[in-house]
Amino acid sequence: MRIATFNVNGITARLPALLAWLDQTKPDIACLQELKAPQERFPKAALEDAGYGAIWHGQSAWNGVAILQRGGQPVERRRGLPGDPADLHSRYIEAQIGDLVIGGLYLPNGNPAPGPKYDYKLSWLKRFEGHACDLMAEKRPVVLAGDYNIIPTDLDVYVPDRWRDDALFRPEVRAAYERLLGQGWIDALRTMHPGETIYTFWDYLRRRFERNAGLRIDHLLLSPDLAPRLKAADVDRFARAGERPSDHAPTWVELEDR
């Protein structure tokens, strides 16, 4: 079973690229972020024609998350992160797919930091830590996949010293990521590529993709019971090199069937 996460950076503009990637790689489950489309503009029919059922949480011009299932229909468990009824941003969606619980997330960027946007990021992270802990307590196989907007370590950024004060790399957000790992969550990509320079995002500016000046900010965290089933994890860099690409590349894991 292949499970992927892909920040599409606008599903309307990137739909041809998304469909081409789905056709080429055929993930069984795909979590999408940054749809940048209201609920009614989600391309449900095009994805169904491609063989995917979907649930989604749209938002006009900003944010937006979705979960796709090849040859099936995800069963929605939750939309929106618990803990703050006033937070209406479409940044989290959760589904049951077979024996798996899939949480798809688009964590706030938080820049400029310090400031209100960074405070919101820290608040969101605190709520996410709490929900992740609750999911862990269910003792079910869970995958939390998405654009975390967190650079976990120096190995995950092309020039660490340039990013020390950025909201993606500040000590508070890296500490929150460490606390997630401390709950028992497994960073699948880093587990399969220990010590390797591997990125999931390259800015459009200054030929950063061509220079491999990237960041690793798209993560798939697995509950501990999935560790024996983890067989592979990687990044589909070819999608970032395609026509009208997102600035992210799809990132995926392969799990052995139970």
Automatic annotation (TrEMBL):
Its EC number is 3.1.11.2. Its cofactor is Mg(2+); Mn(2+). CDD domains: ExoIII-like_AP-endo. GO terms for molecular function: double-stranded DNA 3'-5' DNA exonuclease activity. It is an enzyme of class 3 (hydrolase). Signal peptide: none annotated. InterPro entries: AP_endonuc_1, AP_endonuclease_F1_CS, Endo/exonu/phosph_ase_sf, Endo/exonuclease/phosphatase, ExoIII-like. Residues 4-248 form the Endonuclease/exonuclease/phosphatase domain. Keywords: Hydrolase, Magnesium, Metal-binding. Coiled coil: none annotated. PANTHER family: EXODEOXYRIBONUCLEASE III. Belongs to the DNA repair enzymes AP/ExoA family. This is Exodeoxyribonuclease III. It comes from Caulobacter segnis.
